[in-house]
## 1
Amino acid sequence: MARRSRVPELIAALDKDGVVRRRADLVSEFGKNAVDSATRDGAILAVLPSIYAHPLHRRSFMTRVGAALLWLAPDVVLSGSAACSMFGMDVHKLFPVTIVVNRRIRIRARYWLRLRRHEYVIPSTVRAGLRVASLPCALIQAWIDEGSRVGKGLILDAIRDDKTDAIELIDSFRYYPKISRRRELRGFLEHLKDGIDSYLEWVADQTVLNVPDLARLQRQKEFWIDGEHYFVDAYCDETKTAFEFDGKKYHNDDAARRRDIKRDRALATIGVQVIRFTFEEVTGSPEACRDTIRKTISARRPVAA
């Protein structure tokens, strides 16, 4: 009787996104003949040396990350933007993925794989079966890998969604004795500790409100009105004027607009006027924004009797 081929079973075992296996393990389970035959026919492919996947899934994010972690094991974690995506964050790009190791290792470069060596073992967790850096560490790595603009955006998103906070990020500096643009990152996080929670608010603080007369405006002013809790970005108590800096990402959906309208209406009941500035105005014409703020405050200032 002819011996039944194990190739179909082998192919089926790998036919799922993210499933990768070492050649040695496949040989042990299905036999060398089946592995050689499937490889020769292109039914299974090496994603990395001796790490195999189904050809339909070999270029996917989960498959490549799984292959990299398996190939470089032990003591490796996914970090950077790719790791941020494992916490449900929208990221600028997934590739190249950053893998962090705490030992010296040499590999041939892959266009989709970036290797970082660390002196310290960074905290990690398991997400979807993959060993992933803690979110604060992943965010710091994204800052290092992608630059401050992308890094700031990711950090603001994470804090806005209550996934982490500035204190946790600053505390994670101990795992990164060498951070590119460290002073800039630390200053950015210090501002976030004070309640600046969107990129546009940060830009406004640095480019619009960074003059002596406007620096006196209260930041993240808190109001309780009819049992509801509200905040405004900047507030002039003398003239009861609030200034809002509306980033596209956080104010352009219908639910956000409804919240803004409800808040503006509530503030109006206690005599507070809300002035809003768009993303384009704050980033493109900070001087014009300053001029508008000054004119508004002047016009609303009480006239002496």
## 2
Amino acid sequence: MTIPNARRTPTRRLFLVVAVSLIVGFLLPIVLALWPAAGGGESRMTGAALLGWGIGWALLAALSVRFTDQPQRWALVPAGALGVTGIALVTFAPGPSVMDLLAWVWPVPVLVLAVWLILRVRREVPGRSRWLLYPVVGVLALLAVGGAVETVAEATDGSRSASGSQLVDVGGHKLFIACSGTGSPTVVLEGGLGQGSDYFALIAPAVATTTRVCAYDRAGHGRSEAATGPQDGPAIARDLHALLVASGNHGPYILAGHSAGGAYVPFFAAAYPTEVAGVVLLDAMSPHATAVRSAGQSSENPMSTLAGALPGLARVGVARLLASVASNDLPADVSARRRAFEATPRAASSFGEEFLQLDGILDAAGALPNLGDRPLVVVTAMAGASNGWPDQQDRLATLSTNVSHRVFEDITHDGLIETVTGARAASDAIVAAVMSVRAGTKLDGSTASQ
């Protein structure tokens, strides 16, 4: 009768050892990512995570030897594999091109490791303890499969390519631009955070029936090549102006910016004031916005950590999964192309970098001169708006003495460009600015709720 009791204590101890090791293996990658690897980009963030997981497995081996009579020395294998790989990534910090090459390699050994772990756990770990380890090994296998599927999907997806006539050299890199319609002034559409030309697939054709309209992808986004330097407000304005001139689309321009795209518009208007005839702000971020103030730009900030982790998550298929559940009224081919763009580590990296710069861009935009008496149409989407958003929109309406403010109670921020109803409201606002410029008449100056 004493034998079962004698065996129960070591088994219970092993269960606690496994639980503690898993908790450490879960928390340590977060700690390493938040501190020493924070702001280090995809390779260092991924390396920190692997190192943390490796330490968790090493702890399982060490504690089981020290505190139980059921040593789990096999755990040193995943500890060594993950730990050494993590140290290499943190130390050498390979760039995106190397990480892209490694994406063709790592899923196979990781899947082999997961299968080996399942066999070892079944053989070496008794009772309830193995059921703590099975989900962890399952996640490892899912990461391997997800990484392989994502790599193949990116390589075989032809929807992200751009024809040569749509890529224009602006000095060191090429940007994608798509224009349609005829007439003056030329409307230039500026997308929001991480948004490219495809987001205006409903708006551009509607505006093209009235005048010339162009949508483009900022450097590093969509079909455009990445720039070598930082993409702050002045750099984006210079790129856009060079793109418009090189593609044969001359002013005067009406700039229409959605969301964070509205923060870039003032830089272009300030740099090329004689070429900007009017502005349309589509539920645009205000220079006085507080949404990103708490995020800051410190590499030790959690938002910096999130930005660095995004490419790694995209590399195992998380971004593709999230993009696949998004709904909108965009044409099917455009939605498919947009999902293909947003699923890539490149898109995730560009989004993160742009987000981290947004705070400084908003600050700088707030110091730029107003539009004077040039036509300004402010469009506000109220459905789902946060507290303080209406006040910020009202302040945007003070940037010109020639203004019209249109408020839509039943349209959301994203719906303003992604739904038929929202796109119609946005297009009507842009056309109103075009007509004001053409006729040389003032806007109505009112705030109208619809």
## 3
Amino acid sequence: MLKKNMKWIVLGAIFILAIVNYADKIIVGITVNPIMADLSLDYGQWGIVGSSFYWLFSIGGIIGAAYSDKIGTAKMLAIMALIWTFAQSMSLFIMGLPLLLFSRILLGAGEGPFSAVAVSHLSKWFKPEQRGLAISILNLGNNVGKSVTAPLIVILMTTFNWRIAFFFFGIVSFVWFLAWLWIGRQKPAEEIIETKTTVNEIAATVEKLSFKESLKLFLTAKFIFTTLAIFFGTSAIAFTLSFNPAYLMNIRGFSAETAANIIAIGGLTGGLCAVLISLFSDKVFKKTKDFYLSRILFTSLCLILGGSSYIGYMYFQGTTLLIISMILINAFMVAMFSLAPQIVNSLNPQRRGLMYGTAMGIGSTAGIIAPLVYGYVLESFSNNLSGGFITVVFGFAAGIIICGIMLLIFGRQKAGGDAVQV
């Protein structure tokens, strides 16, 4: 009985790790005001703090995902949990900007491979028609992390201080590592066999592709526009993690508790909606076996609607409308990040870690660039911070919408550029 349900236990464990993963990211945004006051930082320096998380994130993502193909995804997840533990525990000793930057850089390197490795590990346990659901549940962990941990972070921050809040999640990572020592050793009852239907029009073979052949796949419209979607989606995440709490508190005038609740409600409800979107996508795929219709079209619509919701977020007035816009943002963007891995993985199913790891590695460079740009823009708009925030959001929202349109148009093309018959 336990063996039969092991895939759900594995999914549950990785779901919990996803909660910790997102908590580690968002904690710096929730604690922005006490950290900036304690360490005497301005918005320009805060942009560096937000950017530093991604300095080794992309490199860690590519190297970690590729290395997981050699040592196994289970071992790689364990290694990452230990790195997170050490990085977050350093908070007890942070007294200035340099050590804060070092801890964020280390954490970023350790979290870089998570998405690709987690998706790859779950793909070993779930059949193609179930992967949309499995990955959406994985990504729901991010929203649960946002909704559950945001209020918890505020409580820890106000009851103790921001350093204790960081340290708490370091301990949680270590407890997860101890549990994974047993769960990670389990193997699927049967091997998941890939079929041509799974990859639809992709001429996948049992043999791994050479680097030259893989390079051709990296130049396909599907890979390029999906990677760009990840890039602008990551830009949006960078805003959400490091600047959105400051926007809600310093521009909209909400207290830390209210801002955390807005983030929590929007994250949890939107995440649940994202699961429904992914379930519907899975149903369409199971019924039609049409990869373009079930995956690419859904991803494109999520991008277009998600980007539009960000624009609305800047103009909606009142707490209720802000929460609604946050729900829409989370629903569409989380669903996009659930479906995008399947698009790039379909290009070369035998090297999922490489394909999605590369897409995430390239796309995540936005995490380095975006916070620096945001910090610079906000400092430039020091006399009109509201206008600065609007400028920032319009920039990445436009990119998200354009990627959705381009993927919608060119998503049927194969490596050779011919239209795909589906």
## 4
Amino acid sequence: MSYKFPDIYQFPPFFTKQPNAATFEAQLNHWQDIILGYCKANKIWILSETGSKIGSQSLDDEDNDDDDDELIDDSEATKEFNIFRNDTINRHASTELIDDIISSLIKSKHAEWINPINKKQGLLILWNTIEEWAYIVYDWIDTSGQNGSILTIYELQRGDMSKTQEFSGMCTPTLIKVLETLVKQGKATLLKDEGKISGVKFL
């Protein structure tokens, strides 16, 4: 699936914070649509705080250790493309504008910091909110007759049965949040091994 950037992405003022409140609100909405659309099309689950794709988008690293920076050392971030930079028109969004865009995404539940205390660990991009993802995952479980079954994290991310689903390839930090939401809804129980979440039983 490819993503076609809208014309406004080629408009230099788009990369400058607009002083008019109504124009700025529209600017934030356009930025949100672009980020979510691009990340969905390219299955990018995590962005660095500066707008680069996290290098490996590792599926196996969990966020149980708040001090673990392996997910997103900025030196590991993909340098070829940055969502906040358009080399064609030689424009880059300011730090202030980037912060406002990220805050807007978080407010609308379309992004979450992996670790708000250490933002270098990256920003989860949620083209579906966590609650929407929870519905999508459980609907698949229900319609495929897997209620009462136990699935590993790996099977949900890369299993043969799930590979055609939209959540296939989902990064571990996002998947854990989705499963925790299902637990709160009384639809799942998490299974742990040595303190780490290894699987889930769907109810």
